Amino acid sequence: MTPNIQMSDVSVDCVVFGFDDSQLKVLLIEQEKAPGSSHEGKRYALPGDLVFLSEGLDSAARRVLNELTSLDNVYLEQFHTFGDPDRVRGLKDVEWLRNFRKNPDTRVITTGYYSLVKMEDYNPKAASFASDIAWWDVNDLPDLAFDHNHILSKGLKALREQFRHHHIGFELLPKKFTLSQLQELNEIVLGEKLDKRNFRRKITKLKAIIPLDEKQIGVLHKPAQLFEYDVSKSED
Amino acid sequence: MTPNIQMSDVSVDCVVFGFDDSQLKVLLIEQEKAPGSSHEGKRYALPGDLVFLSEGLDSAARRVLNELTSLDNVYLEQFHTFGDPDRVRGLKDVEWLRNFRKNPDTRVITTGYYSLVKMEDYNPKAASFASDIAWWDVNDLPDLAFDHNHILSKGLKALREQFRHHHIGFELLPKKFTLSQLQELNEIVLGEKLDKRNFRRKITKLKAIIPLDEKQIGVLHKPAQLFEYDVSKSED
DNA sequence: ACAAAAGTGTTGGAGATACACCCATGA
DNA sequence: TCATGGGTGTATCTCCAACACTTTTGT
B110 touching A, CB under 8 A? Predict the structure, then answer.
């Protein structure tokens, strides 16, 4: 068997978290079943695939994610590279690889990327070897292919770390948002309740959060003040 | 030219920091010159090399470091993977690769590891394609091969981050150490002076730092109390 | 007695936590 | 008038930073 010189032995896997006003979700693909597979049941995995030889890692992550899910323009952040030679040695894993990879027995290392998107802004559509695609509650995940459960949990940890230290996540809100929306986003990602007054005190002293002379309209309660986020005034 | 199936297109690079009671140093190898090289001058680089196909990343890092420098038993921590396809495209880089690699034009991604060792405990000896090896002051570095200056500075940032948040570095001190020694280690790594009283207050309230009923002997000043570090009581 | 490093407390400010009630709006 | 989420202040604690003198030993 000649090595496929188009492909490297490096892959990328994307842990795309989704925010939907209530729960933190993660995007999983359902892998196409190997023809004549001896194994029953569905096979879920993170969107990921091999990197081309001519391609950078970051752009490979974008390309692969787009090919499998049709998601575009997603901010992806690298968090770890997994290089255990036995990371892909389960029975089902090997069978699947034999069907979908030219060099199924080559050791592949993979670099993990994470991302956080507003679910309503993106409409994932299965393609390539993804036969289906869905958002899963991070607290109720199926068994994943390969070492993807491990990658996913490391990605979640990295996301929370990022949220705690710097403040990302404004991208996920409408341009004009209320402080309650921002708080809810933080609570969902961090997986814990935050104190309203303390949260507001902390947030409103950030220079990047601009209060607007505008209020919500059409809500059936006291309308909240709107704010916007000015990246250029960010202090990170 | 047939691809070398022994080697993957992944390498590891090790940023080994050394602590020597006064300065933070980093270990660089001097690369063997390409025969008939048109370029003058020495060529410095981080110890690093390709990963075997059958090998895990972490063990590759250990192996490569050992082969080039004869260092052994070094704790290495992964910090980032560099995958820009043009990371290795300088003129001298290409010339060197043509001489020392079977597939000089293959894109290689590299995973960076950092480490911190006590210089006196380790005696690096150049081997393989390292023609020489030396500790360099981190504040006075030469131009390095490939993108190694970039990798190095990202490694230093990761080391400092690690030091600020968790407390590593006890491995670098004698089993029984004084608080001043520990403070000095921290100052060297962080590159800044610390207040003695504040440092001691913070440190002594860690449960993992055990005060001993023992003092320094033979010093020409007031002997300091000795402490030891109990990993099992670490609170990180 | 001297040199050298060890050891020790207090104060002020900043930020985190805990906690409960009134307000503005639409229905 | 009611239901709904919006909006607000205070007390306490912990953590951090700044700062200077006395103690113990060996020579």
Answer: no
pLDDT at B184 over 80: yes
Give the pLDDT band (50/70/90) at residue A133.
very high
Q: Can you tell me the distance from the alpha carbon of A177 to that of A185, in angstroms, rounded to the nearest whole number?
A: 11
Give chain D positions with protein CB within 7 A: 3-10, 16-20, 23-27
Helix (H) or strand (E) holding B151: helix B148-165
Residue A2 has pLDDT above 70, yes or no: no
**Within chain B, how many helices (H) and strands (E) appear?**
5, 9
**A66 close to A82: Cβ distance less than 8 angstroms:** no
Q: Which nucleotide is nearest to A202 (CA to C1')?
A: C15
Task: Among B54, B83, B84, select the one facing A85 at the smallest CB separation.
Answer: B54
Residue type present at position A185: L
Q: How confident is the model at residue B2 (pLDDT cuts 50, 70, 90)?
A: very low
Chain B closest-CA separation from residue A77 CA (Å)? 11
CB atoms B10 and A5 under 8 Å: no
Using DSSP, state whether B186 is helix, strand or coil.
helix
Q: Do A107 and B53 touch (CB under 8 A)?
A: yes
Binary contact (B80, A78; C-beta < 8 A): yes
Q: How far is the CA of B180 from the C1' of D19 (A)?
A: 19
Note the pLDDT tens digit of each residue in A111-120. Answer: 999 999 888 8
CB-CB under 8 Å, B9 with A53: yes
Given A10, A84, A107, which is nearest B109 (Cβ)?
A10
First to last CA, chain B: 51
Instruction: Write the secondary structure of chain A as one string of H (helix), E (strand) and C (coil).
Output: CCCCCCEEEEEEEEEEEEECCCCEEEEEEEECCCCCCCCCCCCEECCEEEEECCCCHHHHHHHHHHHHHCCCCCCCEEEEEECCCCCCCCHHHHHHHHHHCCCCCCCCEEEEEEEEEEHHHCCCCCCCCEEEEEEEECCCCCCECCCHHHHHHHHHHHHHHHHHHCCCCHHHCCCCECHHHHHHHHHHHHCCCCCHHHHHHHHHCCCCEEEEEEECCCCCCCCCEEEEECHHHCCC
Task: Name the residue with higher pLDDT: B102 or A27.
Answer: A27
A22-35 mean pLDDT: 87
The pair of structure tokens assigned to B150 is: 């970039």
pLDDT tens-digit series, residues A155-205 = 999 999 888 877 767 778 889 999 999 999 999 999 999 999 999 999 999
Q: So what's the pLDDT on residue A9?
A: 87
B165 touches strand D (CB under 7 A): no
